[in-house]
C-alpha cells in the first residue's frame, strides 16, 4: 500500500495558494530549494506534474488542480479535528459542500441556504459554481454533498444520482424604474421589440422564456445575453433592458438592485432541483435546504 507524505502535500498546497515558491518559502520559513525538492518528490510519488511555469508564477496543471482540491479538504479536516479536540463534546463544525449550476439564480440560492446558518450545529459552507457535468462529476467523487440545478440530472450520466424536486415558481419581468414604468403599460405586449437582457442560449430558463415569447407572439430586442447572471442584473439596473427572474426572488432583487416589476407571467415556470448521490437525504444541512426550498417555492 502506498502512503501519502502529508509533509510534501502541505508544501505543495502552500505553493498553490501563494502562487509562487518564493512566497510559500517566506510563509513556511524554509528555503526555496527545500520546497522545490519536496514538490518534486510528491510529483514523483504521484507520477504527474503538478505545476507549470507562467512568468514568475506557478500555475496548477490539470492533475495539480485535482490534488489541490483534495489537499483543501484534507487540511480543512485537520483544522476541524484540532478545533473539535479543543472545544466541548459535540461542538464539531459540520461541513457542507454545495455545487450550484451556473444558470441557477443566485438570489434563489441565497434564500435556500439561509436556514443552514441557523442550525444548532455550526455549519461551514463551501459553494462551488460550474457546469452541470463538472458538478455531477464532483458529486460522484463525494466532493459535493448536493448540487442545486434548474433541471434534473439526466439518466444518461454514468453514475447514480437522485433528483429531489424542490419546487417551482413563475416569472416576473423587471427593469430599472423608468423603463419598468414605460413597459408596465399594455404588458405583456409592451415587451415586443423592447430592449431585453437574457440568459445565454441553451439554458433551461432561456428555453422556457423563448417558448413563452412565442406563445405571446412577442419578439423582444435582445441587447445582450449572459452566462453571468449577476452581470446581467447590474446592466439591467442601469436601464439597458428588461430582465426575467423567478418571482420568488423579486423582493430581494428590488432591495439589491432597485428593480421595479413590469408584470408577472405565472405560466412561464422555472423549476428547481437538488441532486444528491443518495436516495434519502441524511445530511442535516441538506435536509434544511430541502425544507426551506419547499417552503418558499410553489
Number of strands: 10
- Most strands sheet: 6 strands, mixed
- Return the CATH class of the largest domain: Alpha Beta
CATH topology of the largest domain: D-Maltodextrin-Binding Protein, domain 2
Average of pLDDT:
86
* Helix content class: 40-55%
Identify the strand order in the major beta sheet.
4-3-5-10-6-9
Beta-strand content bin: 15-25%
The CA-CA distance between the termini, in Å, is 52 Å
Task: Classify the oligomer.
Answer: single chain
Along the chain, the helix and strand elements come as HHHEEHEHEHEEHEHEHEHEH
From the spread of the alpha carbons, the general shape counts as elongated
Question: Please, what is the CATH homologous superfamily of the largest domain?
Answer: Periplasmic binding protein-like II
CATH architecture of the largest domain: 3-Layer(aba) Sandwich
Radius of gyration: 23 Å
Task: Provide an overview of this structure.
- By secondary structure, this protein is an alpha/beta fold.
- The protein folds into three domains: 6-70, Winged helix-like DNA-binding domain superfamily/Winged helix DNA-binding domain (Arc Repressor Mutant, subunit A, Orthogonal Bundle), CATH 1.10.10; 91-167 and 273-296, D-Maltodextrin-Binding Protein, domain 2 (3-Layer(aba) Sandwich); 170-268, D-Maltodextrin-Binding Protein, domain 2 (3-Layer(aba) Sandwich).
- It is built from eleven helices and ten strands.
- The strands form three sheets. Strands 4-3-5-10-6-9 form a six-stranded mixed beta sheet, sandwiched between helices. The chain has a two-stranded antiparallel sheet with strand order 1-2.
- α1 (6-18) packs across α2, α1 crosses α3 (32-46) and α1 (6-18) crosses α4.
Amino acid at each position: 500500500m502506498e502512503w501519502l507524505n502529508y509533509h510534501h502535500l502541505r508544501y505543495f498546497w502552500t505553493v498553490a495558494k501563494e502562487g509562487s515558491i518564493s512566497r510559500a518559502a517566506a510563509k513556511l520559513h524554509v528555503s526555496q530549494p527545500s520546497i522545490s525538492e519536496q514538490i518534486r518528490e510528491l510529483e514523483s510519488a504521484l507520477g504527474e506534474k503538478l505545476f507549470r511555469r507562467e512568468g514568475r508564477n506557478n500555475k496548477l496543471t490539470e492533475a495539480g488542480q485535482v490534488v489541490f482540491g483534495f489537499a483543501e479538504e484534507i487540511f480543512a479536516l485537520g483544522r476541524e479535528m484540532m478545533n473539535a479536540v479543543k472545544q466541548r463534546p459535540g461542538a464539531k463544525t459540520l461541513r457542507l459542500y454545495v455545487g450550484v449550476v451556473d444558470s441557477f439564480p443566485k438570489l434563489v440560492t441565497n434564500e435556500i441556504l439561509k436556514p443552514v446558518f441557523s442550525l444548532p450545529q455550526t455549519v461551514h459552507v463551501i459553494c462551488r459554481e460550474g457546469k452541470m457535468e463538472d458538478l455531477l462529476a464532483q458529486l460522484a467523487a463525494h466532493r459535493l454533498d448536493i448540487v442545486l440545478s434548474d433541471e434534473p440530472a439526466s439518466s444518461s450520466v454514468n453514475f447514480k444520482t437522485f433528483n429531489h424536486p424542490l419546487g417551482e415558481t413563475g416569472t416576473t419581468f423587471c427593469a430599472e424604474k423608468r423603463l419598468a414604468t414605460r413597459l408596465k403599460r399594455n404588458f405583456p405586449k409592451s415587451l415586443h421589440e423592447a430592449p431585453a437582457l437574457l440568459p445565454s442560449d441553451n439554458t433551461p430558463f432561456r428555453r422556457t422564456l423563448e417558448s413563452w415569447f412565442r406563445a405571446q407572439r412577442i419578439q423582444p430586442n435582445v441587447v445582450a445575453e449572459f452566462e453571468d447572471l449577476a452581470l446581467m442584473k447590474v446592466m439591467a439596473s442601469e436601464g439597458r433592458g428588461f430582465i426575467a427572474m423567478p418571482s420568488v426572488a423579486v423582493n430581494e432583487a428590488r432591495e439589491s438592485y432597485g428593480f421595479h416589476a413590469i408584470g408577472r407571467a405565472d405560466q412561464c415556470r422555472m423549476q428547481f432541483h437538488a441532486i444528491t448521490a443518495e436516495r434519502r437525504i441524511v445530511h442535516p444541512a441538506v435536509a434544511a435546504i430541502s425544507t426551506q426550498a419547499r417552503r418558499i417555492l410553489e
